[in-house]
Each structure stands twice: as structure tokens, then as C-alpha cells.
Amino acid sequence: MSRVRIYVPRETTAVSVGADEVAVAIAREAKQRGADIELVRNGSWGACWLEPLIEVQQGDKRIAYGNVAPDDVPMLFEAGLLEGGEHDKRLGPVDEIEYLITQERWTFWRCGLTESLSLDDFLAHQGFKALTKAWEIGADAVIDAVTASGLRGRGGAGFPTGIKWRTVADASGEQKYVACNADEGDSGAFSDRMLMEGDPFGLIESMAIAGFAVGANKGYIYLRSEYPLTHSILARAIDTLRDAGWLGEDIQGSGFDFEVELHLGAGSYVCGEETAMLESLEGRKGIVRYKPPLPAIEGLFGKPTVVNNVVTLASVPNIVNLGGERYAGMGVNRSKGTLAFQLAGNIRRGGLVEKSFGVTLRELIETYGGGTASGRAVKAVQVGGPLGAYLSAEQLDTPMDYEAFVEIGAMIGHGGIVVFDDTANMAQQARFAMEFCAIESCGKCTPCRIGSTRGVEVIDRIIEGDNRDANYDLLVELCDTMEDASLCAMGGMTPYPVRSVLKHFAADFATGSDT
Amino acid sequence: MSVRKIAQRYDNRAEMLVQVLVALVQQNGWISEDDIRELADALNLSRADVHGVVEYYHDFRTEPPGSHIVKLCRAEACQAMGGRELAAHAEEVAGGDTTLEAVYCLGNCACAPAVMIDGKTYGRVDAERLDALLASLAEAAS
Ligand SMILES: Cc1cc2nc3c(=O)[nH]c(=O)nc-3n(C[C@H](O)[C@H](O)[C@H](O)COP(=O)(O)O)c2cc1C
Ligand code: SF4
Ligand code: FES
Predict the structure, then answer these.
(1) pTM of the predicted structure, to 2 decimals
(2) Number of domains chain B contains
């Protein structure tokens, strides 16, 4: 029998539920049986609820088995794993799994498919095709394609990427930088991580394209410290590319120089804000800078800098390969293309779902997510991280569209979707929003620093029933002040989740009796 | 590795201060007054500057941690799956040589609640699984 390839993801979620142990068990079992196997560590397809999800290559098909535990491995071999044999945990060919095949994988298409750290596998799957094409068509044409695509920043603010790149390209100065924001602080968000772990070379190629387009020869990745596995994967990917001449001077004889430096954060949420991130990259406290000047004009070390989120950047290679119009042809209104939504919290089938904009929350949560994990009713859904509003079950038909969300006082942000069932106490969630702001505030503005601490106290009093009406008014006033007088969205948007709870779940404040 | 050695690995560049501190915490678990003094010297910064940075970031512990560090995710997706109750349970059962810390998202939100133990992330952690994980730490020690 010829050598059989078995895929076991090396990705944080899969590993967090036992993928490494499964890989060890497979290797051990194969050895005992004298079976010739090749263990491939791929990224995750994003069907997190099926992790550890392993696959066995059979001809041109990959047969998937889900929720595999190390103890299952001997029985799986017994059942003919190496021939894709029948077993309770057999899911069938991976490319027939409903959750996956109905997605529109523009940005995440290599995730799960390829061996994350194999440069050969990357090159066999269009690796560096876009960078090479960028060299052919020239920097201007790359920026034009990105502009035509309608791509907007996936880090939260939704700023048009093409305009940002053009600004940096046009800015004067010899030295320019690309800074990739991999701080991914939002709860419910893990798409940046999945991309970096599943397609690390793809991210670096994307950064090189950005660098080529704007005239930058150096890129920085600012990665949060909570992602140690991601860090080791990225570090190895960078080394591999350097050794292979895909990073450094005169890359592949193109005349283009590009280097990447990997930095770690240190547990500060606000360091995901772009100017705080730049401060941190320069070795200082992550305190938000006043804008202007924009980072595009005066960014890292005072030089013009493209700051982009991981997913924003990783959307670019296919825009270069297939054309901006193709991307703009997906989505709705001013929300073009796809977004990698992340289903999290109390959800039966949590994971990553890349779909065109315009899909509704209900479709994501019900069709993909299968409702709550607890089987109870959905009570609230927080979209866009800790600064995003809590939506009620009545709002699930809202289409995923930046502007439609703004209209209902919410935001799509990074596309994280956190589901709560009907046991959740939303007053506690409002309190947490204020508490989180108090913990993470950079301290520059008073409304954010002091207002959030006051907010926690006031909410506690409302919950206890202490002067409820007066404290309720005070809370609304506090929210107004924070919104009006904060420098960044930390203080400026913390009121969003709070107000949404006041609006949709006011009854949850009434647990204490009024005194 | 000594503080000076770590600083040297970053060419004693002042703008690498955060990276040097990250490496130091990874190695020693915390940052001491002596470390701060030596770093200020090596990177040609004032001690107050280094102090400010150490105080600013949550990761930079200024007390030695216990022999194990358990970070419990206290953010929303984990809250939605019983993270608050898990944290309360952890407070009750964790041994004295274990440092419990809050963390706000480990990026494992689809398999909540999530916990990081000595740098490794675990998912779908209910009270029972946490007990087993903590017990395996104790076992490894004895
Ligand atoms: C408090 C705060 C935290 C943020 N955290 C992140 C983050 O973790 N990742 C990210 O990409 N953007 C984050 N942002 C948005 C960035 O400031 C910035 O808009 C983004 O990195 C720009 O890249 P994009 O245009 O590709 O989205 C945050 C903003 C604020 C105000
Ligand atoms: S709003 Fe808060 S986090 Fe943002 S700059 Fe002001 S104090 Fe800092
Ligand atoms: S919220 Fe706990 S891992 Fe993301």
C-alpha cells in the first residue's frame, strides 16, 4: 500500500481540544501497525465545532472525521481509517461538508487546504502569483485594483483600503512602512488568528504586495501575546521565506526589497487602535495619538505607514489575481466582497464562515450556527467585539452591511458574532462593557478613564435598585459624555453595548427592588 | 539569559523595549526592580520611562508568579458559555502555588470557555475539565 496522507490541523482551536494528542496517537498507531503514513499539519477549515477534524487522503478526495479524540484512534484504524473506512465519526469528503461548501472563500481559500508551513505547498497553490503579477502590472495598477474592489478595512473602522494605500503612495519621503494589525483583541474574533495559522505565507505575500504598491521596504506585524502558537508559526514562516529568497533584498531578482519584523503585544486591548499600536511598536506605552496627522502621512517613526488588519491585507492577493471588479461584484451597497464572520459564544456550530456581505445574522446563526449550544432561545447577539451593540432576537434579520448596522446603532467591526441564550443577564453584560473600558482605557481622556469606572458604579446601583430612575438618567448622561468627548472608539463606543442593553433588555436591570 | 543578553539580542535598540520586556516575562515570569535598572542602562532610557512601560501593559508582572499560571478568559464569548461560573470555580479549587489571572479573549471563542495554562490554550473547559487539567499539573509536580 502506498503512503497515506493524514491531515491534522495545527491551529489554536483544534489544538485546544486535543489535535496534537490525536496526531501523536495516529503516529503511534501507524507505527505499531507498520502502516506508511505522512502526517500533514494543515490549518483549520474553520468548522471549529468539529475539531479536532482530521482528513485522510483517498485519491483526489480527503475524507474527514470529526471530533476525534486520541482514544478513538485505535478504533479508527480498526475501522479502516487509512482507506477512509466507515466509523461514527466519519463525515465524508471534506469538500462535501455543507457548512464549508456553501461558503464563499475569497480570503480564506487556502485555510485548511494546505500544509501551513510548507512553502512548496504554498507555491503549488498560487503562492506569490499575485506578488509576481503586481511586479508586472506595476504599483499604480495594484492600487487601482484595490480601489475598484471596494475593499474596506476589516479591523473595525471600515475605511476604504484603496484610498489609504494611495495616500501612502503619494506621501513624500523615502522610507515608508507597512504595519499589519494582528492585535485581534475583540472577544468573539479569531479570523486573523485562523488566517495567520492556516496561511502564514499568504499574509506575508499580502504585506509584500502592500509594500510594493506604496513604496515600503519594511513591514511590521503586531501580534497579540495571547496567540503563542500563531507566533511560532509566523516566526517559522518568515524564516522560511527569508531562506528561500522571498523576503530580503532584491526578491527573486525583481529589484524589490521587503523585510518583515514580528512584534508581540503585551496584553493591552487598546494597542489594537492603530496609533496606540504604532506607539507600542516604537517601544512605548500604548497611548492613543491625536489625529491628524494620519498614520498614512506620519505613522511609524514618523514615516508614512499603511496600517491594515490581517484580513484586509489577505483579501488583496485574489483582488490582484482576479481583478477588483470581481470582488466588487459580491456583497451589497457599499459593503463589497466577503467577510469572514466568526460564530462564537453560545452557538452549536461555532466557527468561521466567509460569506458575501448581505447575508443576514439569522442565516449565520441559524443555518450555519444551528442555534444555541444550550438548545435554548437566543436572547442577545453581540456583533463587532466589546464595543459593539447587543442585538435582540427581533433584529436577527438585519443584513450584514456596514451602513445597515450603523443605522441600528450597531457595528459589524471585525465580524465576530457572540450569541447568548435566554439565561444571560444583560445588565451584567452592560456592566462588563464599562468594566472592560475601565480596565483597558489608555488613560488619555477623562470621560473614558473616569467615566467607565463611574459607569460600573452607577450600573451596580441600578441593579441594586438604589434610586433607580435618577441613576438611570445618570447612566445615559455618562454615555453621552463618553461618546462626545473621547479621543478613540474605546471610550467613544463603550456606550454602544450599554445603550443597547438599556433599549432592548431594560427588564434585566430590575432584579433588585427600588429603594 | 541575563537582562543584558536579551537586550543585546535586540541590538540594545530603545524602540525594542516592549519586545525585550516580553522576552523577559516569557523567561522569568516577571520583571524585577533590578531588571528595570539594568534595562534602562542597556537601552539608554530613563528608569522612569521603563517603569512607565512596565506598569502600562497587563502582561508585565512585577511580582513572581506561582509555579503555574492559569489564565481564565473573562470576555464575552466565554461569559456566554459559563465563563463567570468557571472563574468562580477556579478560585475555589486552585492550589496556592497557582497564579490565576484574567485574560480578555484567547481567540478560542468558538470552543468557549477557554483557559490558558502555562502558555497552552484549552477549549470547551467546564469545571470538570478544569479540575482534570489542574490535577495533571499537580501530578506532574509530584
Ligand atoms: C480600541 C480599539 C481597538 C482596536 N483593535 C483593533 C484590532 O485588534 N485589530 C485591528 O485590525 N484593528 C483594531 N482597531 C482598528 C484600528 O484602529 C485601525 O482602524 C485598523 O487597524 C486599520 O486597518 P484596516 O483599515 O485594515 O481595518 C481598533 C480600534 C480601536 C479604537
Ligand atoms: S477614549 Fe480611552 S482609550 Fe481612547 S484615547 Fe481616550 S482614554 Fe485612551
Ligand atoms: S472570548 Fe474567551 S476565547 Fe474569546
Answers:
(1) 0.98
(2) 2
